[in-house]
Batch of 4 targets.
Target 1
Amino acid sequence: MNTVTREFSMTINGKGVTSEKTIKVLNPATEEVVAQVPDATQEDLNNAVRAAREAFPKWAALSVDERAAKLEEFADAFSKRSEEIGNLFTLEMGRPLQGAIGEVIGAAKTCKALAQKRLPREILEDKEHHFVEKVHTPLGVAGLIVPWNFPVTLAIWKITPALLTGNPVVIKPAPTTPITALLLGEIARDIFPPGVLNVVSGGNELGQWMTEHPDINKISFTGSTATGKKVMKSASGTLKRVTLELGGNDAAIVLEDANPKEIVEPIFWAAFRNTAQVCIATKRLFVHEKIYDEFLKELVQFAKTVKVGNGLDPASQIGPLQNKMQFEKVKDLIEDTKKSGFNIVCGGEIEEGNGYFIPVTIVDNPPEDSRVVVEEAFGPVLPVLKYSDYEEVIARANNTEYGLGGSVWGNDLDRARSIAERLDTGTVWINEAQVLSPHFPFGGHKQSGIGVEHSLDGIAEYTNTKTIMVKKK
Ligand code: NAD
């Protein structure tokens, strides 16, 4: 499938809704228009929020098992259409097809796993004259704002806990990848009562209207740190609860006893999977000086075997950047790296032509304060950095405003563990990377976010804590 001949509508109060104004969705591999989708007006958003508000009492009154059953039905319904959704995903996002289909199937599994979870009612005191219980109540309407790098996964990570705990949702995909979320909305129409799951598409201002909206009680946002700050500021007007999953500049630390041949491949993918458009991608790779040269040689050798191309070509392992803005940003970073005279040992040359393609680019030991080290590239440019001392490398890894993830690689597990304990990040992996699960909390320290997703901790973020006390006779 190379073109899309059908139309996509928003889902508001269980019905398909179009709009006068539309947004063009481009295929990042060809820059051709794939589809035109509705550009929601403020009135559309108000209608979606009103529908969600009206649906709230009945949805919240269902038992958690009834809500979970609906979520499981939803997961089955979109999983069954994984090929169709995966194709559209590749067309709008650029991700190679197998990965796109895999993401849809994976999102359905996550939805089902999260739907199994139950926030416990906790008895805090049960004495002769006094009984105290802690319960969780839903917040109201949840506004869910999603970026373009994992348009299906990140939507499901938010929809599931919100609906499970009784909060109807209004979800807004990124303006450059709206199709998959609109399709999820279409599928949801036959499953959930009207108003429970609404999908609106539009530009960045639609996100801002959501964060300001007086009838939205919770914002769960995934995106850049800069936008996250705007979201928090704007949500403060009505004291909305917020969960913010933001940017990262993850360090991977390779110990002196690591075997380069064994770890080069997983580290390569930790850095470049999804064209490096991953919040928890390895973005700074620290390698001990004793094995630095050998490691870099192996890494470059492997990098040269990886095929970058159109996601619809089965041979492609890495697709284009998702949008022009990101493409220009990464191009600029590579230009700056070249102008500064740093040693690019792989890639770096961007071919003219259609599509937002950037080759895998590896930079040999640039200075610590260079842009390519300090900035979150969110594209396939990786600085490899030499270190000689473990105290030094911990300090360097932590020397960033971000604190999302990190990893340590080597055979001395005690040393790896002691370094992991001291990295100031929400997640640290040892001898693996990017392993996520609905059972483990995921979130950022410092300016990488507030709150977590997944696990009971993440589910609880869609609830108020309520303490009930009874004085017994
Ligand atoms: P972005 O912040 O530009 O946009 C994210 C979403 O916010 C989009 O839907 C956008 O339309 C909307 N938005 C834009 N301005 C808004 C405003 N003022 N108010 C409300 N909503 C607004 O981010 P992006 O470029 O789409 O995504 C890339 C960033 O996301 C990277 O920094 C990446 O690290 C981060 N990210 C974080 C995680 C995580 O879990 N921590 C996961 C994926 C991506």
Note: The first strand starts at residue 10 and ends at 12.
Target 2
Amino acid sequence: MEAGAGAAAGFPDSEYTEKGVTIVGSRAEVFAQADIVLQVRSPGANPDGGAADLALMRPGQVVIGFGEPLTAQEAARGLAERGVSFLAMELMPRITRAQSMDALSSMATIAGYKAALLGADSLPRMFPMLMTAAGTVSPARVLVIGAGVAGLQAIATARRLGAVVSGYDIRAAVKEQIESLGARFVVLAIEAGGAEEKGGYAKAMGEDFYRRQRELLGDVLAEQNVVITTAAVPGRKAPVLVTSEMAMRMAPGSVIVDIAAERGGNCELTKPGEAIEVNGIKIIGPLNLPSTIPYHASQMYAKNIATFLKYLIKDGKLQLDCEDEIVRETLVTHGGEVVHPRVLEIVNAIQS
Ligand code: NAD
């Protein structure tokens, strides 16, 4: 392990050496010595596109980590050229036997929790209803748009803090999940049949659909104190669901927490990585929320990636058996080539 790799997350080197880990002085040494490298951010998910790490990699090496394989084509080509077998955690199939390896869900859980806290912290009101000698405090109204893993956790957290919560998603299947958390499911008069793909992800819809959705959401939004947006479509820019005009219909002091900021944002006003204020409305566009709760983000990620590694090792050797759905779906590069059909399609489309 690279010296100090866990320190900022609350895990000193001593905790690793106690378990028998060899600590090496530099990142370069880790790459030089390891047959398999486990990372948080692999090339593609690194700000420099992974150039520094790519230079350290060698043919036959196996790298496992987050690598934004559906958007970072340069990195995919770079990994193939280095002869590396890269397995992307983002591509873990959403099937029951892979659940304990699903790092996207782990990170989304943390992001959703933190989004609700950011909303509560930035709002000039309290979340719960309180009956005090100084009068009754009315509860905050929170709307969560997009009720996937992050959205459901944001709903649960806002409920625990006592807010009156509503949830909306394009996938009607989430109605029961939202209601089981004590929130109201928002129904819009819009036909969204077939909005769900295999694996539970949302499909990209046409611009007409999104326009109608925005029109209908405007009225719901105007009644909220906090709006948390989490809507995403894998491999695409996030759909714009909150226009500037819609945001301006909210009462002064209201807050929008847009955790789709990493994919451009669900709110037109969002500035990724910034918290801004427009006409008294705060718009927060946080990036990499899991890194703000590093202890549990590390613990959960470690469990996901270790389970995956153990799964790949059979009879003491790492086996990349492409007959296996989990391997086939996550393997991006192998034998000097991009081998993942969806990634290859994107790489080829850009080259032609
Ligand atoms: P995600 O991060 O890709 O998207 C977040 C949410 O945004 C989704 O619920 C999506 O439907 C919603 N969304 C997209 N476009 C929208 C729009 N225009 N308006 C409103 N909402 C919109 O999704 P995710 O959190 O990764 O989860 C997606 C699904 O996968 C969920 O059903 C989840 O339960 C399922 N899942 C299954 C497993 C498993 O079976 N192992 C594991 C994790 C998640």
Note: The first helix runs from residue 13 to 17.
Target 3
Amino acid sequence: MTSEVSKRESFSGKYGFIAAAAGSAIGLGNIWKFPYITGVHGGSAFILVYLICILLIGLPVMLSEITMGRRSQKGIFGSYKKLAPGTPWFFSGYMGIAAAFLILSFYGVVAGWTMEYVLKAIGGSFSGKTPDQINAMFESFIGQTLKPVFWQTGFMAFTGAIVIAGIKNGIEKYSKILMPVLLMILLLLCARSVTLDGASKGFEFLFKPDFSKLTREAILAALGHAFFSLSLGMGTLITYGSYLKKNENLVPLAIQITIADTVIALLAGIAIFPAVFAFGIEPTAGPSLVFVTLPNVFQHMPLGNFFCVLFFLLLFIAALTSSISILEVVVAHLVEDFNISRKPAAIAITIVMILFGIPSSLSFGSLSGLSVFGLSFFDLVDHIASNFLLPLGGLCIVLFVGWQLKPGDVKDELSNGGTIETGYLKIFLFLTKIVAPIAIAAIFFHGLKII
Ligand code: TRP
């Protein structure tokens, strides 16, 4: 920005926005978390509920966030304050801040694992190992005290440095080239996985719905993951929407990001589950699932070691383009609303997040005995953030756009001041006002055993 009165910086066209928003959405959520929670919650029926949540809740929330952002030209707090001055809506922004702290604390731990795995793959550690040995290797790594914390700190330092240097856009430019490569490797993995002996069971697990496995927790987890995977409920896409030019058409943008994110998650599922059954790995293994299964698949591929190195490297970068979008939510809040300068804000927050992530990391080792409500510290933090804070933040966002903003303003935003057709406006308003809020509330109370 050149002067106070200059217009807010904007993305250089819609591809800049898509790269940033897709970079935020596509990350560990798609490749690590989606397969692991699908395994824990019994497969196909969970996936079906997840897809319904994406369509009926995720998409309207995403469009609402982008609409708020572009309308107000502000982040989450500024947006609420500018669009509804003098109202308490902005308080819900604090849930987003809390979610950002919690999520990045454990996200950094898992992203740190990908860094260790790049090195392990370079050293050829997986060559000739059996599935059991690869599993033991993973367990012994995450059970240590110092090494995982070292990598977690390293990853968070990268995240902090990028946010401080303000080179997010630079990273997103690289990721525009690198993410298609990740997609290619994922496709190769799928091809190998589905042709393994015994792969068909994995297909059944993924695509033949068994509704008897659908618990309250599974439905709540599917909702929470729709938010997590699409980067919703925290204000990330409000901020990104605020950088969009007034002549971009918001609906196709939201649809494209949603499709890209969902396709990557489903491909990760197809790459993993046939192999899980072929190698006799437990589908309910939890957070270790991807780290144990995929090195095995690479062992059964020509140039497997090479692809394995590349895969974990790209997964690390995918995690980085997501983590910077989370850190940015908190840093932008301190900078915009408290006038703290960017550098000390980012350093302080990164340090707090690292410290808060340490018990999550240790919950796989020295703190494994600790359980709260039957959950490990790692699971507890994820649970509170993904299944509570994000859906509640999202609920506020759809209620705000559906009921607080004037329909004329929403129409103005979606039709770019009346210049494009908005035949879908009625559907969007119906989903935003009624369907999404009721569905979020119902799943939420059902998950809490209130209804
Ligand atoms: N969506 C990212 C992933 O799937 C994680 C993420 C980035 C996120 N920004 C977010 C989750 C904002 C919730 C809210 O890995």
Note: The CA atoms of residues 23 and 254 lie 14 Å apart.
Target 4
Amino acid sequence: MRIRTKLMIAVAVNILVFVSVIFFVIRPYFIEKSMEQDRQTVESQIASVTETLANRKSTLERTLVDWAVWNDTYAFIQNQNDSYIASNISEESLENLSVQAIVYLNREGEVHYSTFRQEDAPLSKADRQTIISDITNRLSPGLEKQDGVYDSDYGPILYASHPILRSDTSGPVQGTLVMLEFVDADFLADLSAQTKIPLTMQPVQHSETKMTLKNDGTEVVVPLDTVFQTADFEVGFIVEPTHYQNTISMLRLGMLSLLALALGLFLSLLWTIHHVVIRRVMEIVDELKHITVERDSRLRLRRDQHSRDEIEQMATSMNEVLSALEDTRAEVLDRAFRDALTLLPNRLALEDYFSTVRGSHERIGVIGLDLDDFRRINDQFGHRTGDAVLIYIASRLNFYKEAGFAARLGADEFIFLHPDWTLEELKPIARRLTKDLKNWSDVNGVKGMTVTIGLDVFACRESHHTYEVMMGRLDVVIHEAKLSGKNRILSFQDIEDGSHYLQTLEMERDLRYALEHDEFELYYQPIVSPRPFAVRGVEALIRWNHPGKGQISPGLFIPIAEQLGLISDIGRWVLRQSMLEMKEHAARHHLFLSINVSKRQIADGSFLQELEDVLHETGFDPLLLHVEITESEVGGNLYELQQFIRSLKAIGVKISLDDFGVGTSSLSFLQSLQLDIIKIDQNFVKGIPENTFDRALLEGLYQTFHTLGLDIVTEGVERPEQLAFVLEHSGSLIQGYHYSKPVPLAQLEHYLKKTATMYDW
Ligand code: C2E
Ligand code: CA
Ligand code: CA
């Protein structure tokens, strides 16, 4: 989930919680509170209404008592005061008393005198009669003062009565004075004005004060008999829920503004987070992506100079990480282009250097160095000495190189390049290097240490003069120099026009031509078990019968074919040809056929399929096939090689390690390859039996391989003494001139026949 989404959710949840608390806790509290206040208002209004009514009643009562407890009235009711009516009763006095009528009842309860106010509702005599008789009927005799509101035909009437007494309240009671008042609209309006509550009056329905909660407020009815002794009416009014309504509208407004505020907060938070955090983070992410895609370790994140916030600190840290990565990368690159022992540039660096020089110079002077018998130095004097020689040579090369370039190409191979140098400049350097090395070995007591040096002035501008061609030419010169006795300096120009055929470019063309025109031929060299004698197998060795230049050694053209990428085509030819030629013999004499496979062929990937095709096509028994790989190939991709070997073994083909001892791989490493056969290089045999060291070495090797359960083929056995030594110390098979040189097929057939009869008894 994106930060923005997460933040939105978090903020929204917070706001929701906040609003919920307000809605479900605070809001009900306020509502409850307002309802409580409304209830109090209702109660106080009821009190106010009741009090006003009671006041009204007591005012009437006071007037009534004033008139009823009075000597004048007392006399009047006994017919002893004739002027009473004239002096006291008038329309005006009734209005002042604010009563509607006054009725004097004598002791028997009969009407002695009555008068009604005339002004607004003149009543007929009969009406008055009815009212008076209604009231007298309602008065219970014997009770002192009475009051009530009764339902007359003319509307509700409030009445009050009091016994007529002397002014000093002494009796006996001579009658009853009744005063009445119409409870009409004016009366109610008056009451409403006093209480400030709009009141209504209706016939009584309830026995006590009652409050009913309605939509528009609380409906209250107060029966009048709570104030008067008897009453047929009740007053009603409605108390509006003012507090409740106020609170509700206040809350509504509050909630709305709160929501608006929350929304505003939410948006402003989002905006801030987006602009301050997310946008910057996204920028950094984009820049990092760009850096990853570009794979340029020099790139850095842009920095905001004005900001010192955490994101900028993060960007700073990331830039520091990038710097560290750049350093590491530089280190790795440096290591990839440098030889760890001598610290000289390696093959990769050389190729790089060549391509830069090529564009800017006409020619390039090349010196190639290859130590003679370096393996022997290592074995004889120890690896420390071996390393010391290499480091020494590196230092001398650095010393001489001036504006040139020196590199270590392999175990004991070095190269020195200098743009524009000619042979005249190269040769003295080569001679001095030879001399330096001789001095070094004299000083360090390392006898017999020599170096073979090849020189070349390479016209690098020529389009076909590629790096491969330059290296091929150097290989050829050194090879030639080694063949002609090592420890010497030979230049490509020396041999170029001689009997040797070495023009690489021409050779490429000719190799292709040779493939198409059957110029290759296979020779076979027997591999025998000496005692009892039996030819156990043959190694197929290619020969090139060049129409113009005669037979060319594979040692010369195979390295060049490898460099030119022609080895796979040649290898394919060898595969098919050898199986076709040897199928019959192999089956008849139960011979294995050993063929050489070069690194390039393995890397090519198509070898396995081709092998299976040829096996199928020729019907050659895979169990009789051996594939020879060399130790230098083992130095490549181990996993790939293991896969290759596993696939070969799966179809029954055996694996032979060729030229053992030329490389420097450890035994445990070789063991991990599941080899079947080890072929000991002829160099081990050369010094046998004269050289004590070589004897000890070879003997040790036999023991080791025997312990490891590996089959052994000893190569290069030429002399009987050598054979004797091998026989004495091993059960090794033998491949060497002692038995046979590599020979053409016809000759091999002859050999097989001859040896079969020779040793057949
Ligand atoms: P290698 O595989 O080590 O082959 C053995 C070489 O030792 C052969 O040289 C053989 O003639 C030589 N030899 C055998 N016995 C003796 C002996 O008693 N004394 C001496 N001095 N030499 C002996 P050759 O035929 O000139 O082959 C040279 C190299 O060329 C081979 O070395 C092998 O690496 C390569 N080669 C030959 N044929 C093929 C091939 O078909 N394919 C590939 N990839 N390489 C091949
Ligand atoms: Ca071989
Ligand atoms: Ca060999």
Note: Residues 525, 540-542, 553-555, 558, 571, 574, 596, 598, 658-659, 682, 715-718, 735-737, 742 surround C2E (ligand 1) (CB under 6 Å).
